[in-house]
Sequence to fold (242 residues):
Amino acid sequence: MVLAGLAGGIAFAQDGFFRGRGRFSPVPAEARVEYDGRFSFVRLRYQGGVRRDPGWAHDYPRADWHFQRILEEITFTRTLRDESNILTLDDPDLGLHPVVYMSEPGFWTLTEAETAGLRAYLQKGGFIIFDDFRGTRDWSNLQGRMADVLPEARWVTLDASHPVFHSFFDIDTLVSEGYYGEAQFLGIFEDNDATKRLLAVANYNHDLGELWEFSDTGWVPVDLSNEAYKYGVNYVIYAMTH
Fold:
């Protein structure tokens, strides 16, 4: 897949259409759209965080809406575009959505109900993206919470040969410099078997959501936003076809 195909879609996100909530404006506890078969971006809400906008809400809603628009423009996936969902991990509607997204998992906390909810979601075919975290403290927290959810699961460093990086765009070389430093992409596989389905992916030292959020502002280089969209699109297409 050539870059021109993505650049054409990004133009729609750069036309000033999304000029809504300020970065530190109050964030609703919930945003829920009635399921109608279209793909809806699902942002996971949890307790914890140190920002004026809680960690789970970082880049909301612009990142979510920009991404859905790009996804619809360059694939055959029908999306909600200007709406998205905010759900907790114990929400009964979680299973309606094949992909969920968590921002800043370095601050993530879990209740018993949320632990059981995420475990059931992943075991039934769900896919979770962890984004916007860095350093050993954040990584340790993510490892700990996923050990609560799937005690036997092991994180594996992914390389560019994995199908998730070729589900729509061919990403032959993974970015080495993420938003926060040297980037790694890690995953958890079903039964810890790398030949089986990928359940979770973590963008360590990276922040795709930030690059999606500001892709219409000129504040970040277009090539970085292009690459960030490629990863997101690939994650969704992989999750919906495996």
About this structure: Strands lie at 42-44, 85-87, 99-103, 127-133, 156-157, 184-189, 198-204. The two ends are 20 Å apart (CA to CA). Residues 22 and 159 are 36 Å apart (CA to CA). Helices lie at 3-13, 62-74, 112-123, 135-149, 208-213, 222-241.
